[in-house]
Amino acid sequence: MTAVFRNTVLVRFKHCDAAGIVFYPRYFEMLNDFIEDWFAQALDWPFDAMHGAGHAGVPTADLHCRFVAPSRLGETLTRELRVVKLGQSSFTVQVRFMGPDSGLRLQVTQRLVCVDTGKIAPRPLPDPVRQAMASYVDETLAPTGSPGI
């Protein structure tokens, strides 16, 4: 059975526009926070260790999103992550933001690449991290977006 990484985020005033709904760039901040949580809590490679002693980073190489319904101030959203594709240095995830009613609010397909921060060049994911990621691979999900994913 495929693991799903899941946690919640409260929609705060700072996330919203004047209409009280999430301003779309704030979703990308929530997405980055969620990826950082996954690395720390599920993959045992927190960003401080990755960027510090690890001399690595995982910048986004490709991002496709579909905004389905608005999220409002005060709501708690559930975020879910599954791995769509796992390579040696890159990986593609599908992230879904669900509302309190379990309705889909946002779906993202994101490809990230492990890079050496000194050279800014791809490098292989560390074996323990790649092995931990493998438990989140859901082969029933097809990559979406550009043909290059």
Automatic annotation (TrEMBL):
The keyword Hydrolase applies. It is an enzyme of class 3 (hydrolase). It comes from Cupriavidus pinatubonensis. InterPro entries: 4-hydroxybenzoyl-CoA_TE (IPR050563), HotDog_dom_sf (IPR029069). It comes from the Bacteria. This is 1,4-dihydroxy-2-naphthoyl-CoA hydrolase. One of its GO terms (molecular function) is 1,4-dihydroxy-2-naphthoyl-CoA thioesterase activity. Keywords: Hydrolase. It holds the Pfam family 4HBT_2. Its EC number is 3.1.2.28.
